[in-house]
Design goal:
The complex is a heterodimer of chains A (292) and B (164). Chain A has 292 residues and is an alpha+beta fold. Chain A contains 12 helices and 14 strands. Chain B has 2 domains: 77 residues, Beta-grasp domain (Ubiquitin-like (UB roll)); 70 residues, [2Fe-2S]-binding domain (DNA polymerase, domain 1, Orthogonal Bundle). Classes of the chains: A alpha+beta (292), B alpha+beta (164).
């Protein structure tokens, strides 16, 4: 239970980190908060030749509003997001989701970028960033590019990052002030990975029908799963009990959950129905409340 | 020979300069190099919380950090809680409320309780339970740990914690 040997670097500039990645390519691992990578190193499930510790690149830790976008640096710790008045005010679904990540020690160290790049299928942030139609900024030797969250998560622990690229920023489009949100998760103990989780947002038009919705599931698919049929069903409709039931059933049908010690695929699908229903009830009620 | 890295850090108010191998965990550095064996090593993958220390004012699991990463940091371990012979108010409350049996998890829980009370001097039971949710205790069932932290909060609300 001790890491194998590796070359260690702690560059202070992203440029230097990129140069190291260029040198070691896929034999290097980036160490951000380390709350997923360190266990893998300790158990020797990961044995990189080089470890590039980016914790000294402090320029990439920030939360700021840029017009209709909330920009979050990849090195921003979960705890900073959890306690940020700006996040609570402008992006409450993110503030809510972050509370579900691990426990205080994990949230003090773990980072936004680390969670997204690691891409655990049951993690909260990939789901909530996808639900917010986030865009991810990636830096490589040729410069910057932007990837949509939906395209970033490609499979089980697999993301659209080349071996010589670093995730630098997450950009979240802010929803209208009157939108309702909800984040629901079911696990055996608070802080465990979700057996099933969902992030939901609903905005209403002037007739109090659903103008836009976003429903993204965690833990029931190799990647965050956008419940597109449920979103489509809600559009232009009043958020009634019947519509919610049908939307929840569609989301359950569309999920592709694993069977493991925490629950069978059937159990997880049943949970999806329950949490999507609860999330839409809450998001819908909040949107109605905001309309008043 | 593996490359050694020089580090300089403050632990419980004392400055140390050492050289370490990059792969050495902070937990092992504290225990083996500084002989501060109050920091316990349980699961070694961030699930049990026994190795929790306070780094730059925030709790962190020292099995999920490399010693080289603590270069320049200020660390508080359980050895730094008590002031001389007298127990820290949180330690005293644990003793009074019988909040430990085997004691393996206790150093980590004490530090999480300390960090919690520094941030929130009047936590609710729910907030206390959230605050120690990163710790596994196989003896107490947590009930007396929660009581002890409540008792410490009441005591320290009168006499504020020294800024450790």
């Amino acid at each position: 239970m001790k890491p194998a040997q590796f070359d260690y670097f702690a560059p202070a500039k992203i440029r230097d980190a990129l140069a190291l990645l260029e040198e070691y390519k896929d034999e290097a691992k980036i160490l951000a908060g380390g709350q997923s990578l360190m266990p893998l190193l300790n158990m020797r499930l990961a044995r990189p030749r080089a470890l590039i510790d980016i914790n000294r690149i402090t320029s990439h830790s920030y939360i700021r509003r840029e017009n209709s976008v909330l920009a979050i640096g990849a090195l921003t710790r979960h705890r900073e997001i959890e306690t940020s008045p700006l996040v609570r005010q402008k992006c409450p679904v993110l503030a809510e989701a972050v509370r579900w990540i691990g426990y205080p020690q994990i949230r003090n160290r773990g980072t936004m970028g680390g969670s997204l790049a690691h891409a655990h299928p049951a993690a909260e942030l990939p789901a909530v960033v996808t639900a917010l139609r986030g865009e991810l900024r990636v830096i490589g030797p040729a410069g910057e590019r932007t990837v949509k969250a939906e395209e970033f998560f490609q499979g089980f622990f697999t993301v659209a990052l080349e071996p010589n690229e670093i995730l630098s920023e997450v950009r979240l489009a802010l929803w209208p002030k009157n939108a309702g949100f909800s984040f629901k998760e079911i696990n055996r103990r608070h802080g465990d990975f979700a057996i099933a989780g969902v992030a939901a947002l609903i905005s209403l038009n002037e007739r109090k029908e659903c103008a836009e919705s976003s429903i993204v599931l965690a833990g029931v698919n190799p990647t965050p799963l956008r419940a597109k049929r449920s979103e489509k069903l809600l559009k232009g409709r009043k958020i009634t009990r019947d519509i919610i039931e049908t939307a929840a059933a569609l989301a359950a049908e569309d999920s592709d959950p694993p069977s493991d010690v925490h629950g069978s695929a059937d159990y997880r699908r049943e949970l999806v129905k329950v949490i999507v229903r609860r999330a839409l009830e809450e998001a819908g009620a909040r949107a109605m409340q905001n309309e008043k | 020979m593996a490359r050694m890295y020089p580090i300089k850090l403050t632990v419980n108010g004392i400055e140390y300069e050492r050289t370490v191998e990059a792969r050495k965990l902070l937990a092992d550095f504290l225990r083996d190099d500084l002989e501060l064996t109050g920091t316990h090593v349980g699961c070694e993958h961030g699930a049990c919380g026994a190795c929790t220390v306070i780094m730059n004012g925030q709790t962190a699991q020292s099995c999920l950090m490399l010693a080289v990463q603590a270069d320049g940091a200020e660390i508080l371990t359980v050895e730094g809680l008590a002031d001389g012979a007298g127990l820290h108010p949180i330690q005293q409350a644990f003793l009074d409320c019988h909040a430990l049996q085997c004691g393996f998890c206790t150093p980590g829980v004490l530090l999480s309780a300390h960090a919690l009370l520094q941030e929130n001097s009047h936590p609710t039971e729910e907030e206390i339970r959230q605050g120690i949710s990163g710790h596994i205790c196989r003896c107490t069932g947590y009930v007396n740990i929660v009581k002890a932290i409540q008792a410490a909060a009441e005591k320290t609300a009168v006499a504020p914690l020294n800024a450790k």
